[in-house]
Write a structure and sequence with these properties.
The complex is a heterodimer. By secondary structure, chain A is α/β, with parallel strands linked by helices. Chain A contains 8 helices and 9 strands. In chain A, 42% of the residues lie in helices and 17% in strands. Chain B has 24 helices and 38 strands. The chains are: A alpha/beta, B alpha/beta. Chain B: The chain crosses the membrane at residues 6-26, 59-81.
Chain lengths: 292, 919
């Protein structure tokens, strides 16, 4: 039985991170110049797209008389198709994301959260519907959704390497998956396959700590996962470096290959780089995806 | 006891058996791994270590730890190197210690005493009574407890003499009753009187001899021959080639004892003596108090010089030399001949020679001296000078000391003197009467052919008899003497040449001069010569060769001084006689130095004692070092020791150890090659970074201009530190002046002056022509005056219109920099330079001016940045650029002038120049 008092306290603790996260994400998002996010084809919307000769089937009401009066033919004024997209996000909240190589660097989880929330803010301000994969938070519009997303992102998963959540995918929606992708690659593959089946395209953002790229270890070492479920002992960590890096690159290649096969885009972001660059890349990749 | 190693607690060594068990235990403990959180661990799963490093401790680490533990165990067992054997055949008979204790024992006296102390301690442990007998100072030995004797050991010192026969006889007599064993500490020199004592000692019990195998050096008294001090050293044992250093020690002018001269003497292989000579100036020679062999202790290694080494300084004053030629008639000729071999002669006027403080002043027929000279002479006489006067025609003719006794004459003289045995006189030439016992000449043989034909006569006086020290057969005085203060005046009543007497031709003359201590004795006097004299010891040597004051030692009779053997009554040292001093040295040419030959039955031991050396401390230290190495190794194994850090530490240590010298030398060479491989302009570093940067930029701009316009292709300019850098590499030094730059040191000024004298040029730039014309008291101008004061700068003048600097490359009359001040000063042209007919130039074939002084801030105008754009704005618009161009032209002319000198001053160029000038 949950005591009201502890519930309240936990809620306060949980909520206390929200404003900071929101502020950070907001700040990050404000760096991206938000353009009108049209579909680059004629359709329903407010903006002028083109004039075209009237064809059979066009109602008389759709004729633009002002343009037509300049000549003999009747012209129809097309508007750009503006339709709200559904964007579904998946953020790896597994324990492995809480790793930070040194005291000074941000943990992977917090960087990924900020990036995802900033992306969500950008998308929602662009008029899109944003939600999470799965059934916990379906895509919706509005500022309120940002708060809900922030809350959802603020929870941690005790599981060491969380598999991607591929359920509840809305057909032809857009998706953003952020994780370190160090866990089971088959689950990623299955999720992407499922997404491809539904016509969902999107972005894979791999967030890594610089230490995971450098492997600066020497001597006899026992490596443990953050959740302490997996451990590995070596006598000479230095010798493992090359082979570890090979495996890491192999993993990255596989992810890229998966993305190519399914029409997704892949990027690797390190926590010592600036968050802005990753956000810009994501936004551009996303916008580009929207044009297609 | 294992060989030379013993243990105080050998049972503890059983602990070494536990080492194998420890080995097994330690082996099982691997180094602790580091636990690291790492999400990438999934990628590592399945990887295998390539090298199979065991997770057990590596064998070498184990070995290290084992060694550490073993070292501790062994250390606890108390190992001792060279433990003293405590099981020698103990004898409980008393022990008599016989010591030669002569000067020859002194060099290794300390070793003897410590060796003796060992033996005495041993005797103390064995409860044997001990007694001590010193052969140089025999006293009846009394057996006593060893501890009592040990406590007295420091007071037992060697004597500066050797045991004489009498001493040995006494020692034999006072040997204690009963049986005893003997330890004889010998000095290593063979003496005949050893044998009887040895026999007597052997009759009482066993005899063991201790003798140092080291060689021994003796220094013979120095002699003076051929203008140099002759030194002879001898050694006891022949051996390989060897060189020793002999030092002459005496007071320096301020009275502190110092080494006045040194001379190396080399013993050839298997030769027992070494000779050498050293030339020492007379002034220094007179100050020498002793000669010693450097690094050798003992009275034998010291020799004291006496008067034999000292040459008297004799000033010869003759009456005015108005006689030409006729050397043999010169009043001083025979004196010079007699004194030259043994004395240093000084010639010159009286006032010139007296300040040199001669020992003797000789007046050869000098009648009067001026009052001032007389006062000086009297003062000098009071302090111990000796005035030796010879009579002669002038003295006889003068009124000196006629009615009153002259201060500088010993007696009054009767007018005219007398002549005997001549063609116009009665009587025979007079011979010399035998000398009285009181006379200093007593004992000299008088040759029968010495006669006197003329003399000056002394006026009979009450004091006359006491003043006569030699007279003729008829009782007339020949030599009279008067004491004045510490000095004396001696008058010889005949001439110093052969005019009045043939005395100066005889050997007696020389001997008389010697007796008067006018000339120095060259050989040690015979006993007979010294009979009846008494000599007072002034300084005596102790056994270690230290010179001490004689204090209240009694005087010695002259004949004993030279013949008697050294002993407590006649210590080696310096003895003072009436007029001179004599030295008794320990080692003379007669001293025999031969090594002892002991009979085979006598055991002879060296002095080296192998002392007990406890090793526990060393072993414990070793184990600490091993454990420290273990810590490092363990850290390294578990990856906690960063290789890079260690490497950097080691490199840093290595850098600080040996590198700097090499690198310094290398950079010196490199800098020199850099500076000289191409022509480089140079500026003096002022310590002001901005200004130095500007100077570099300015010279760089000028170098570029030179490169583009002329055949001079300078490399990058260089900053010169006056204190450390070589200046000779640079033809031109640009020296910007700031009020606060440091003044160069004296060495730097010396370098600068050499630089200026050998053709270098310095361009001083006060950089203040905008606010002050040169020479007024701007801060920079004052600083320039201060800086240039010690420099060797010739007279200067404002740059004349026809100076070669105006036409070495460009034809210029203005020399602007950033400012356009007119005053530029260069070396002044010679005053006699003339204008050549029909030419606008004077004929000036002078050298390159060593300095140019101005204040136009040329570097400011020349300075460019890396891309060649000027750094400073000059004036406005085109006129500013024109000013910069002229500034560059001045720079080109300047460098041309430095490099080509007065080439353009040659009149050959005049027609071409006139053509260009349009005249």
């Amino acid at each position: 039985m949950t005591q009201p008092l502890t519930l309240r306290r936990d809620a306060e603790i949980a909520a206390s991170t929200l404003p900071a996260l929101l502020a950070k994400a907001d700040h990050l998002a404000s760096g991206v110049l938000l353009g009108e996010h049209g579909r680059r084809r004629a359709g329903q919307g407010d903006d002028f797209w083109q004039y075209r000769p009237m064809m059979q089937g066009d109602s008389l009401r759709s004729i633009d008389w002002r343009r037509s009066a300049k000549g003999d033919a009747q012209f129809v004024r097309d508007r750009e198709w503006q339709i709200a997209q559904s964007v579904i996000l998946w953020l790896d909240q597994g324990a492995s994301m809480q790793f930070a190589g040194t005291k000074d660097t941000e943990s992977k989880a917090s960087r990924a959260r900020v990036l995802m929330l900033a992306m969500a803010i950008l998308l929602i301000r662009g008029g899109e519907r944003v939600g999470l994969t799965g059934f916990t938070l379906p895509p919706r519009r509005g500022e309120q959704q940002i708060l809900r997303l922030a809350e959802a992102f603020s929870t941690d998963d005790a599981q060491d390497y969380a598999p991607p959540e591929a359920r509840g995918m809305i057909p032809h929606a857009k998706a953003v998956f952020a994780s370190d992708f160090l866990g089971d690659i088959d689950a990623v593959e299955a999720a992407l396959a499922k997404a491809a089946d539904r016509g969902v395209r999107g972005v894979l953002l791999q967030v890594l700590d610089p230490m995971e790229e450098a492997f600066p270890f020497e001597g006899r070492t026992i490596f443990e996962s953050v959740g302490r479920t997996i451990s590995f002992e070596t006598l000479k960590a230095k010798d493992l470096r090359d082979r570890y890096l090979d495996r890491l690159n192999e993993r990255r290649d596989r992810l890229q290959q998966l993305c190519r096969a399914t029409g997704w885009q892949f990027n690797c972001h390190h926590t010592n780089e600036s968050a802005q660059s990753a956000l810009l890349w994501m936004w551009r990749a996303f916008d580009g995806g929207a044009a297609r | 006891m294992i060989g030379a190693l013993g243990f105080t607690a050998p049972w503890l060594l059983l602990g070494l058996l536990a080492l194998p068990i420890l080995w097994i235990i330690l082996r099982a403990v691997p180094p602790a791994p580091v636990r690291r959180m790492f999400p990438g661990v999934v990628l590592l799963l399945g990887l295998k270590d390539e090298e199979q490093i065991s997770d057990r401790t590596p064998w070498w680490l184990l070995l290290l730890r084992m060694l550490a533990v073993a070292a501790v165990i062994i250390a606890m067992a108390g190992p001792i190197l060279n433990p003293e054997a405590r099981d020698q055949t103990a004898s409980d008979s008393p022990l008599l210690v016989v010591m030669d204790a002569s000067w020859a024992s002194a060099p290794d006296w300390r070793a003897k005493i410590s060796s003796l102390e060992d033996r005495l301690s041993q005797a103390g442990r064995d409860d044997r009574p001990v007694a001590l007998l010193r052969l140089t100072d025999p006293e009846a030995p009394v057996f006593q407890a060893a501890g009592t004797l040990i406590s007295r050991l420091t007071g037992i010192l060697p004597e500066p003499w050797e045991p004489t026969n009498a001493m040995i006889a006494e020692a034999t007599n006072i040997l204690p009753e009963g049986d005893f064993d003997t330890l004889w500490f010998s000095d290593g020199i063979a003496r005949e009187n050893r044998a009887p004592l040895l026999t007597a000692l052997e009759a009482k019990g066993s005899v063991t001899v201790f003798e140092s195998p080291r060689s021994l050096y003796g220094l013979e008294p120095a002699t003076f021959e051929d203008g140099a001090v002759q030194l002879t050293a001898r050694r006891l044992r022949s051996g390989p080639e060897q060189t020793i250093t002999v030092q002459a020690i005496g007071p320096d002018p301020s009275g502190n004892e110092t080494t006045l001269a040194t001379q190396d003497l080399s013993f050839a292989a298997d030769v027992l003596d070494a000779r050498g000579s050293v030339e020492i100036p007379a002034e220094l020679r007179a100050r020498i108090q002793r000669f010693t062999i450097a690094g050798s202790r003992g009275a034998g290694a010291v020799s004291l010089p006496d008067d034999t080494l000292r040459r008297r300084e004799v000033a010869l004053i003759a009456s005015s030399q108005n006689r030409e030629g006729l050397e043999l008639l010169s009043p001083t000729h025979y004196l010079e001949r007699a004194l030259e071999p043994t004395a240093d002669l000084i010639e010159g006027g009286l006032t010139d020679v007296l300040p040199a403080n001669p020992d003797v002043v000789v007046f050869a027929d000098v009648a009067t001296v001026s009052e001032g000279e007389e006062a000086l002479l009297l003062e000098w006489l009071e302090k111990g000078g000796m005035l030796l006067r010879f009579a002669g025609p002038r003295l006889a003719a003068s009124d000196v000391s006629r009615s009153e006794e002259d201060a500088l004459m010993p007696v009054r003289l009767r007018a005219g003197g007398r002549t005997v045995g001549g063609a116009m006189s009665w009587g025979q030439p007079k011979a010399l009467a035998p000398f009285d016992a009181e006379s200093p000449f007593f004992g000299l043989d008088i040759p029968s052919d010495v006669s006197v034909t003329s003399q000056v006569m002394a006026q009979p006086d009450p004091t006359l008899a006491s003043r006569v020290i030699a007279q003729l057969t008829d009782g007339t005085p020949l030599v009279t003497r008067k004491r004045v203060g510490q000095g004396q005046i001696v008058l010889i009543h005949v001439t110093a040449n052969a005019e009045w007497s043939n005395l100066p031709l005889s050997g007696l003359f020389v001997e008389m001069l010697e007796r008067l201590a006018v000339s120095s004795i060259t050989a040690t006097p015979e006993a007979a010569d010294l009979a009846g004299t008494t000599w007072q010891p002034a300084k005596v040597l102790d056994g270690f060769g230290t010179l001490r004051d004689a204090q209240n030692l009694p005087g010695i009779a002259g004949e004993e001084l030279v013949t008697a053997a050294l002993g407590p009554d006649l210590r080696p040292g310096l003895y003072q006689g009436e007029d001179r001093s004599l030295a008794r040295n320990v080692v003379t040419s007669a001293t025999e130095l031969t090594p002892t030959q002991w009979p085979d039955r006598i055991p002879v031991e060296g002095l080296s004692t192998s002392r007990e050396t406890p090793l526990a401390g060393w072993l414990l230290a070793l184990s600490m070092v091993l454990l420290f190495a273990d810590v490092l190794a363990s850290l390294a194994l578990s990856g906690k020791l960063r290789g890079a850090r260690v490497a950097s530490l080691i490199t840093a240590a290595a850098m600080t150890m040996g590198m700097p010298d090499i690198s310094h030398a290398q950079t010196d060479d490199r800098a020199a090659i850099d500076a000289t491989s191409e022509l480089r302009l140079a500026h003096v570093l002022t310590g002001d970074d901005n200004l130095d940067g500007l100077a570099a930029a300015g010279l760089k701009g000028l170098s570029d201009v030179l490169y583009f316009r002329t055949s001079i292709e300078p490399s990058d300019p260089i900053g010169v530190n006056l204190e450390t850098d070589e200046l000779a590499f640079f033809p031109l030094l640009y020296w910007p002046i700031t009020p606060d730059q440091p003044t160069p040191s004296a060495e730097a000024y010396a370098k600068l002056n050499t630089y200026l004298r050998t053709g270098g040029m310095i361009l001083f730039d006060t950089r203040d022509a905008d606010i002050a014309s040169f020479g007024t008291s701007s801060p920079n101008g004052r600083k320039l005056q201060a800086l240039a004061a010690p420099l060797d700068i010739p007279p200067l003048e404002p740059l004349p219109q026809d100076h070669v600097l105006t036409r070495t490359f460009y034809l210029l009359q203005d020399f602007p920099g950033r400012y356009t001040g007119r005053d530029i000063w260069v070396e002044a042209a010679p005053a006699d330079a003339e204008l050549i007919e029909g030419m606008p130039f004077r004929n000036l074939n002078d050298n390159v001016t060593p300095v140019i002084i101005g204040g136009n801030d040329w570097i400011g105008a020349w300075a460019t940045n890396a891309s060649g754009m000027p750094l400073n704005r000059l004036g406005t618009g085109f006129s500013g650029e024109r000013q910069r161009e002229i500034a560059y032209r001045f720079g080109v002319n300047l460098v041309m002038h430095v490099l080509t000198g007065n080439y353009k001053s040659d009149q050959v160029h005049v027609p071409a120049l006139l053509d260009r000038l349009g005249q």
